[in-house]
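ok trying this again, last paste got cut off
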Amino acid sequence: MTQAELERVGDYALGLLEGPDAEAFERQLAQSPELTVAVAKFRRHLHALDDTATPLPANPELWARIEAKLSSAGTVVPPTSLPRPANDNGWMQWAGLAASVVVALGVGYLAGTTSAQREPVMVAVLLSEDAMQPGAIVEAFADDSVRLMPLDRFEVPEGRVLEVWTLPDPATGPVSLGTFSNPQTINLAGPDLPPPMSGQLYEITLEPAGGSPTGRPTGPILVKGFAKAPL
């Protein structure tokens, strides 16, 4: 993925794409699992930054130092003592600068420049039966755990659960990685398995409460996809 593509991923995730640009990107997103993974990864890292940030009172000297730095670089910054309307050019220039900083930080995460958070060894985009709609992203780690990020709000009837499966190899058959009922990002710790491989199948099925009674998928397959090593 090129630097320009990474920047558009950041712009979209932050809501900076509007109108025809946003519509064009969403059409591209629907046809590109790679872009879907990139957008989800960008948003996840921004959430991680939010989680680690401790609220602090603003330093009264902070804006003065920022203004001095930007003024020395030839950037005009409006006075911060007065609220600025949305159509104020100076304020929009400052907002654009702030957004650019956030995008650059997110692109750095996508490009792998920050390694504080563990990285998956395999990623799978799970698609609907018609392969038109991405429904979830699975990140598989070397310790047999997975992170599941639903992209769709699955309908779960009363008395049923969603179960995540993988197929390490045909001889072993499908193996359950766990169940869930509330579509949200979750971590599942599967049994002791061989390291995940490129092309490994992952899927989500609808099962009775408590999970499949047979240890094999019994319900309809909602979404499925094959793993690929992230770049």
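PB: full thing came through this time. Residues 77-109, 111-116 have pLDDT under 50 and may be disordered.
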